[in-house]
Amino acid sequence: MTRIFNIVLLLSASTPLGLGFSFSITPATRLLGTKLAAMAPLDQELESWASSAGYDQIDKAIPAGSSGWASFRKVTVTNPPEKDGKPVSFFVKSSSRSAEEMFLGEALGLQAMYECSGQGEDSLRIPKVYHYGDYSEGKGSLIVMEYLNLAGRSDDRALGKAMAKMHLAPATEAAGNPDKAFGFPVDNTIGGTPQPNPWTKPNSGTKEWIEFFRDHRIGHQLNLAGDSYCSNLWDNDIAPRLHLIFEDLQGEKEIKPSLLHGDLWSGNIGSADGKPSIFDPAVYWGHHEAEWGMDWCAGLGKSFWDGYSSLIPRDEGFLDRKPLYDCYHQLNHYNLFGGGYIGSARGHLENLKKKLDAKEKAK
């Protein structure tokens, strides 16, 4: 559109167009052409998206901060969609990098969480994704999602119940997992650390989950950490016997894929419109217990666990597996920040070895 108006503005007010008539430029047309020609690429993308989505045009675009990798805006349109009888505003993230690199994982993760959370009164409040992609012209990308009026944490029991509801949601095509496997459609990041998510085989269970977490969670983080003590302990004493702490999850209790937020700590928990909300995820399909590997900095108290266990009671071997799931996040923190986190990871691995030794001795 910009190129067309640049051409038109170079014509005189009655330039013949070779079609049997002449075109006259009014002051309003000249002003609109000048405005579009001067638009930044993001503004052009937003105008184009709003028009093609049937929302007419952008009403307001208000800067809403930035990070080291993206800028944020709150955007309203002149003909907005409605949710619960109220007009929807949009939260827009933009970046100079590609959508595949920056926003694909986030978009698919939010879409899966939105699908698995449902829209009932006891559901998580997850923003709906309306659009994501690369700029049609120029370098850059954006993601457009529903704007939420976020507030602090409110009802922890409701949060626990809503998390359980998401974990219980079946793996389906609409949720992005038609084969009922562990993994995710794309690799993503946890903090700034790459998180590989290759799919396991269809209809996966406990055996496939053990292999996935062994290789693509702990093994991956240990390779990044480069700590020989932890790696030797894992390779020689833990990984070959990992199945021993999953023996209670066989048969009827076989592990089934649950959609996980993946990075649940207090900074990623809030509320919106009176309902619990979680954000900034590192989504993948996994064992629901793995969600709690960050509970050492999530502040999940009795009220939360009462709500969660009302739908998903704690399994017998939960405490045996807890050091395994905690270790993943301690290793990730070491890879992100260094310092004493490696000591905590070592402690979890040593604890895990003791549990495995005891189980093997009891056989």
Topology (elements, then pairings):
Blueprint: H1 2-9, E1 15-16, E2 22-23, H2 27-38, H3 41-52, E3 58-66, E4 71-77, E5 82-83, E6 86-87, E7 90-95, H4 99-102, H5 104-117, E8 129-134, E9 141-146, E10 150-151, H6 156-168, E11 188-190, E12 193-195, H7 206-225, H8 228-238, E13 258-260, E14 269-272, E15 275-278, E16 284-286, H9 302-309, H10 318-337, H11 341-362
Antiparallel strand pairs: 1-2, 3-4, 4-7, 5-6, 7-9, 8-9, 10-14, 11-12, 13-16, 14-15
Structure report:
There is one protein chain. The chain has eleven helices and 16 strands. It is globular. It has 363 residues and is α+β, with helices and mostly antiparallel strands. It has a five-stranded antiparallel beta sheet, with helices on both faces. A three-stranded antiparallel beta sheet has the order 10-14-15, with helices on one face. It is 40% helix and 18% strand. Mean pLDDT is 90; it is low at 1-24. It has helices spanning 2-9, 27-38, 41-52, 99-102, 104-117, 156-168, 206-225, 228-238, 302-309, 318-337, 341-362, and strands at residues 15-16, 22-23, 58-66, 71-77, 82-83, 86-87, 90-95, 129-134, 141-146, 150-151, 188-190, 193-195, 258-260, 269-272, 275-278, 284-286. Helix 1 (2-9) crosses helix 2 (27-38) and helix 7 packs parallel to helix 10 (318-337).
Straight-line distance between termini: 74 Å
Biggest sheet descriptor: 5 strands, antiparallel
The number of distinct β-strands equals 16
Fraction of residues in helix: 25-40%
The topology string of helices and strands comes to HEEHHEEEEEHHEEEHEEHHEEEEHHH
Structural category is alpha+beta
Count of individual helical segments: 11
Strand content is: 15-25%
Mean pLDDT: 90
Shape descriptor reads globular
Q: Trace the largest sheet across and list its strands.
A: 3-4-7-9-8
- Rg, nearest Å: 25 Å
Instruction: Enumerate the spans where pLDDT stays under 50 for 5 or more consecutive residues.
Output: 1-24
